[in-house]
Give the backbone structure.
Amino acid sequence: MRVNGIGMPNAAITQDTEVKANDFMGVNDFLKIMTAQLQNLDPMGGNSADTGEYISQMAQFTMLEQMSTLAKSMESMNTLSQQQLSFSLVGKTVSVFDGESNFTGVVEKVRYREGMAYPVINGTEYAMGMVHEVGGE
């Protein structure tokens, strides 16, 4: 975007903006805005913002960023937990309900597609949700 500077009619200021996915505003974006606001403060205090407000907003952004990081970590732990559970089924006898009938078989292997585990029993893949009992005869 090309904008002529105030008081400098022949000088042009260019600004490249990067569009982020989902209109996400990170801490760095907040810091840029806060820096611009601080640079344009009225020295007489007429339209100055409260510094406590800036600190509060910064704390909120920091908490939001930490919560996002925590959510990603929890998702990763959930995936690892699912993998561990599904790997532990290999070689075990399970009971499966396929929507029509119950049957028992031994888990031969586990296949993964799109982050989901599918145990293979008697040569056929089943969703983990169809397994309703592990062990037994």
